[in-house]
């Protein structure tokens, strides 16, 4: 993707806050990669965002997970988008407001992700209880991330349960998320609202106006989250970043400080 509206002469190509975010994310990924096979691995794993009600969850993970990435491609795609759209916005807003927006959208992405997952967990638990699953079993499955222990607990009940439903319950309970994607989606939304008619080039070849790109991307992420396609991607975290970004921009507009 690329855009064709701005001339580099008036803007810093790498403004201060964008630069710091790029460096911090890069250094943390490098540290995670280098130290992944050392005793520090559990520490890095604890920085991901886990589900409430499990031993792995801590409230501060809503913040720390934003600076973690699962692969180099994950890191590169997020950081490229952060630079491409974020640099333009920071040059206009200034570093302080840009960082505030970035962190609010990041936290908002985590909050919506957790909320949707808790709803899914509740629905799966209700169906399992209706099939005769003991509440004690569901509580025990929440408390262990050891698959062998989980299978043993299920076998001990002696109750024939829907295996697919049990699997969905267990893996949703113990799912985690990392990455700056929610904040990046918030930044893309801000760009689309500020420069709706600017052209963005998909794959550096296909022109599309920013407003349609943002709307289309948001709809795609929402439908993907509901339908469950592209499993392994936290679609509602992306939606959450856009939603909280929109709410913050609307708040700033009411106070007359948005431009």
From TrEMBL:
Main location: membrane
Tree of life domain: Bacteria
Subcellular compartments: Membrane
Record-annotated membrane-spanning stretches: 20-40, 60-86, 98-116, 169-192, 199-220, 232-249
InterPro entries reported in the protein's UniProt record: Peptidase_S54_rhomboid_dom, Rhomboid-like_sf, Rhomboid_protease_S54
Single GO BP term: proteolysis
Keywords on record: Hydrolase, Membrane, Protease, Transmembrane, Transmembrane helix
Residues making up the signal peptide according to the UniProt record: none
UniProt domain Peptidase S54 rhomboid: residue ranges: 58-118, 171-250
Single GO MF descriptor: serine-type endopeptidase activity
Mode of membrane association: Multi-pass membrane protein
GO cellular component, one term: membrane
Pfam families on file: Rhomboid
Family: Belongs to the peptidase S54 family.
Protein name stated in the entry: Rhomboid family intramembrane serine protease
Annotated organism of origin: Candidatus Merdimorpha stercoravium
